[in-house]
Amino acid sequence: MNYSKFLICCFIASLSFGCKPTETVAVEKNADSENTVFSDYTIAFGSCDNQKLENKLWKPILEHNPDVWIWGGDNVYADTDNMDLLRKNYRTQSQTEGYMTLKASAKIFGTWDDHDYGLNDGGEEFSAKSESQIEMLDFLEVDENDIRRKRAGVYHAELINLPKGTLNIIVLDTRYFRSGLTEAKGSKKRYQPNTYGEGTVLGTAQWDWLSKELTTSKADFNIIVSSIQFLSSEHGFETWGNFPHEVDKLKSLIVESNAKGVILLSGDRHISEFSKIEIEGLDYPLIDFTSSGLTHAYRGFSGEPNPYRVEKVVSVESFGLLKFDFDSKTVSMEMRGENNVLQQKILQKY
């Protein structure tokens, strides 16, 4: 192509794409993926989907033809102990055209957060949690013989066997058993960390279950879904960091279990970001991929501390993608928005 034609092409491209947000791509140096085609398996996930608002992301989600869709919490906004109302809201969400199309082609996983659980920032104290669990499982179309129908909490794990490897999807419940939070005093923050050793995020039964899942897992990748952030803990909202001993407990479990390729997925915050930490004894970095929200975002975001953040916060509507290559043991993690715009990306080799 000669120089004049090149300038014309650039001008046409600027007309086509000039209104789209700027792409921010962070590529890990240890991921030699120049010639990698991430086609072995695709997981899409997201959180914070208000059934009263238009979700403009179903179309770009469907364009990636994901094998799995994971609801990360706040899958509807209800904040109620009225099960008729909650059921109505779930029905509205279930009948959304884009989601109906997705359900026909992808396997559905999901956890809840506070607004679909039924109580803002709620935990074990919510009086209608067992009734709310039934509605949540109905929304996910969980089989009547599934163990989640017989026990407290919506936590769940499933091993996915593929021609080139295996994936273990581990969905946590950070609501049903979670202890009370400590309100922050003399600060603009909502909460402060509990005294070390006091309270729990998962509760005894779920911790025992998770320990067994990770310790016995032979999967190439272990995807842990938490509705609230795990690594980012200084913002003063809900986070695992409000229970610092529980953070240490999960870190230790991941190391001691020798589980391969552990990746954390989270939501809740109405912002999207990558957080990453190196943990002694773990031969890969632990990444917490936060994707939120699907129908609304914290567009007025002006900053908050997070020493583990990779690149910058995305504060417009977005969804998350994980694309796997089992030959190179590499995962492409992408934040994408309206019109399928790539907002940020990490390539990580495991």
From TrEMBL:
Residues 47-278 form the PhoD-like phosphatase metallophosphatase domain. This is Alkaline phosphatase family protein. PROSITE patterns: PROKAR_LIPOPROTEIN. Pfam families: PhoD (PF09423). InterPro entries: Metallo-depent_PP-like, PhoD-like_MPP, PhoD-like_sf. It comes from Winogradskyella marina. CDD domains: MPP_PhoD.
